[in-house]
Every structure is written in C-alpha cells, then in structure tokens.
Amino acid sequence: MNFTGMSATEKQILIFSFYRDAELRGARLLFNLLGHMKDGESQLKMTAHLADETRHAYLWTKRIADLGGAPVLIDDGYQRRLGLRTGVPKTIIDLLALTVVVEERAQSRYNAHIALPNVDPETMEVLKSVMKDEPWHLSWIEKEMHEIAREQGNEEQADTALARYRTIDREVYATLAADEAELMRS
Question: Residues near 2 by Cβ (< 8 Å), separated by ≥ 6?
Fold first, then answer.
C-alpha cells in the first residue's frame, strides 16, 4: 500500500477500519458457530461473545465517525486473507480453533497498539474497552474446543488444528505487518 500523502487522521481511519473489519468478520464466524453448538450453555456464551464482537465493531465505527470519517471497506484484510488460506473449516473443532487463533491475533494487535507512544485518549479508551473482553473470549472458546475434542475421543485434534491455524496466521499476518507498521508510525 502507498500511504504517501495520507494525513495522520486518514491513517487512523484506515487502521480502525481494519480493526472494524476483523471484528465484523469475527462476528460472522461466531454467528456460524451458533448453528453448530446447540446446548444452552454454549448458546449463552456464544451469544454474549457475538454481542461483544458487534459492540467492538460499533466502537471502531464510532471512533472513525468521531474523527470525521467513514469506515473504509476492507476487501483484503487479515481475516479475508486468512480465510483464503485456511479454506472453509470442516469440523466444529476447526471452527473453534480458527476462532481461538483469530482472537489471539486481535489481542496481539490491540496490545501492540496500546504500547505505542502518543495514542490519543479516545483511541486508548476504545482499545481498553475492547481488550477487557479478549481474555474471556480466548479462554471459553479454547476450553470448549478441548472439551468437544475430548468428548469425541480425539483431544489431539484440537492441538493439531490450533497448530495448523497458528502457522497459517503467522504467514498471513506477515503479509500485512509491514503496511500496518508503517501506518502505526504516523
């Protein structure tokens, strides 16, 4: 990407649009999981998690609007690239493992952003609000994935799926990292 000539505000809007896109695509993944996890406890947790993801997307959309902009439509973001590499998950374990990896990446990206110097207070507030949900998202999904794999008599399947998706995640994120770092420097 060429960021020459973009103002600092335009760069922020682009970064936040990437975050928004990832949250919306994560919500879509969770919505798909709702049809596969039918027990009451999973439905409750999944619905709460889905509500968090859509709230996160709202917070990024609101932050963009507060900067005087509109979300940039992201047609080649992290989750799209990840999906092209992983293909359609074929099992509930794969869906849950992919969700864990996506949540890990979101947490990592937000932590990196929080650590930057000169993050404005309004953006810091959004980052902290979003980050407070991430530990729970990761723990309940990973626990559920291992429990289902254990019930299916193949706990190794969960570890294998996680390893596979983490490898793909690192490769995909590397394709975005340089552009994102350049954007963050401004």
Answer: none
The label of the residue with tokens 């019930």 reads: 151
Please check whether residue 67 is in contact with residue 59, taking contact to mean a CB–CB distance below 8 angstroms: no
Q: Could you write out the three-class secondary structure of 80-123? A: HHHHHHHCCCCCHHHHHHHHHHHHHHHHHHHHHHHCCCCCCHHH
Residue 81 near residue 149, CB atoms below 8 Å = no
Q: What is the mean pLDDT of residues 32-55?
A: 92
Identify whether 14 is part of a domain: yes
Span 103-127, average pLDDT:
94
Phi, psi of 89 (to 5 degrees): -60, 140
Vertex 162: Cα angle to 158 and 165 (nearest 5): 140
What's the total number of domains in the chain? 1
53-109 pLDDT, tens per residue?
Answer: 999 999 999 999 999 999 999 988 888 888 889 988 889 999 999 999 999 999 999
What φ, ψ does residue 102 adopt, rounded to 5°? -65, -40
User: What is the span of the domain harbouring residue 61?
Assistant: 8-184
User: Regarding predicted confidence, which is higher, 135 or 3?
Assistant: 135
- Gap between the Cα atoms of 148 and 153, Å rounded: 9
